[in-house]
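Box 3.1 A note on notation
Throughout this textbook, protein chains are presented in two layers. The first layer is the amino acid sequence; the second is a token string describing backbone geometry. Keep the layers aligned when reading.
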Amino acid sequence: MANDGSATTLNRLIEEEKDSRQPEQHRDLLDLSDVDAVICGRLLESQMKTMLRMTKEDFRDDSDDDNDDEDDDDEDGVAERNLFFWSVLTTRKATARLLWRRGTDQIATALTASKMLKELSSLSKTEGQLDEHKHHSSLAEQLETDATGVLDECYRLDPRRTLGLLTRPQPRWGEGSCMAIANSGKHMAFMSHAACQTNLNRVWFGNMEWFTPLWKVILSLVFFPITVFTINFTDDVRRTVRTFGCTPAHAHPSGIRRYLRAIYHYQTAPITKFYYTVVFYVAFLMLFSLFLLTDLRPEVISPSEGFLAAVMGVQLLDEIRQIVSQDAHSCLRKLQVWQSDVWNRMDAAILVTFFLAFIMHCALRDSGMAAVKVVYSCALILAFYRPLQMFYVHEKIGPKIIMIREMLQDLLIFLSFLVVFVLAFGVVRQALLTPNSLLSWKLFVDVVRIPYWLIYAQLLTDPEGHVAGPWLVSILQAVYVLVTNVLLINLLIAMFNYTFQSIQGTAEQFWKYHRYSLVHEYVGRPWGAPPLTLVPLTWRFVRAVWKAAPSKDSVSGQKQSRRLVSGGRGRQTLSSDAHTAIPEVQRQRIFQKLGAENYILKEKQKSSSEMSEEINELKRRMDELSEQIAALSHRDRCYYDSSSGEEDIDDNHKRDVCQPSQQQEVRRESRVHGKLDTVV
């Protein structure tokens, strides 16, 4: 049944992929490229570019190496990966688990499969296949649990190697790391693991020791660069390098070099960039508020407005950088991934409203200043809400932001109910008070305005409690106030309370998951704050253009280097980096496989212990049942023996009947054994 539902959903997706092609490219027969586009583009959301081993460029450039590429398939595990995909999509749990256990990169494999099943589950729910939705959801949760269990075992065996395992690119699953795959698949339980959070702390502090007190970071920000020597830094192999005593007063070149290196590490750490952004944003909001209050004049572009426009222009360039740097294979997909974050959409709204107001100020005269102030005010309101993302850093405030986001959904549901009552009362009230009104915008405002303020106990009555208008208006207003103030408001409070109680236990998990996006943003953010970020942005642009236009010799050299590094069996690599990196990758895969085996062994032991407990419980119940049956049979025998005797037996003789003699016991046992032999 599950296989039929999966096949139906996949066939529909494949047909949609065929229909999206150009007419000259449309094919009636099933093509592997259609299946590849559905899995990589729809189910995995462009995590992988392709499942196929050979791309068009490979066929064009390496047409003479077909046999070698077939050998590479076996080495790279492409066949096992595709077979695992097939078993997951057809919901063959036993086959999928066997392939997962015998393969490599168990964490990335389980996370990718779980992500694919989550997307398939949402599609099944949209199509109304509820059984299929439930089946895919349970299998996706099981795979996420398996990935978390393997991570827990690896972290228990070797925490340091596990942290490297989380950040290592996964070539078989789209070059992303395990944490990137977990973030894109919304695997909150995995992201809230201690290993992931420890890795985020290390990345957040950069080359500083991740247990560095916060006051040292802020003190170095205020009294930079004098107090940088109070912070301990680490080198590339995570060894502590003390900077104490390496002040510029030391004339030794190594001391000066170490001090300059400490300054560089401090300035490029994500936590330093974050506090630079905090300081900048506070100054930006203060300047924007003062400009809107005191310096917005008609037909005059003040220096403060020009400075704000320059800052927003640099911010626009940084948003373009974020779009380009998204892990996607097309411009449209990059834009979709970027706009999927609510904070990016808020940034876009701030930029659009600000530049709209700026253009209106430059184009309009005195008559349009009111509209300019309104649009600038909207931009300022959004700018005040934007720093809420920065609260994600705090362990106590971050979960509260998550609760507010969830409660906003309840508020929208409440407003949908409220609109019905507001319009029902507002239209009737307006019709009774002012019949035959002229159609205008003021009419719509009057219909909604009074009923809305009545929600907040603004009764609009005279001192004697009379309502203006006919008697029917008073009755309607009384019913309306009763429903809105008593029923709907208490319903909203109950919804908020339920949401708070349900999220309270998982709010920390939500916060740990969303913390990754914040850390990832500040890792890629250029140094400084706008407009100072224009310098590193320009440098990145020049470097990207320089790398994008290499010479022909360098292109051929890079191709040859890639072939030698990713060659098959028996090929020798000329790159020393590849020679040292490949053994480390193999060691990490062996280490991960060891963690997977330990996890599976513990699961079997847990299941066997649960089975033994169930058997013991069943045995105990059977013993109780046998004792009850023996007691009932003994009572029946006593009753039979007492009823078959003489009626004039005295009480003492009756007690003797209830306590049979040894001969009677022997006769009964012989009868029982005879019956047992007959049964056998």
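The mean pLDDT is 75. The first strand starts at residue 233 and ends at 234.
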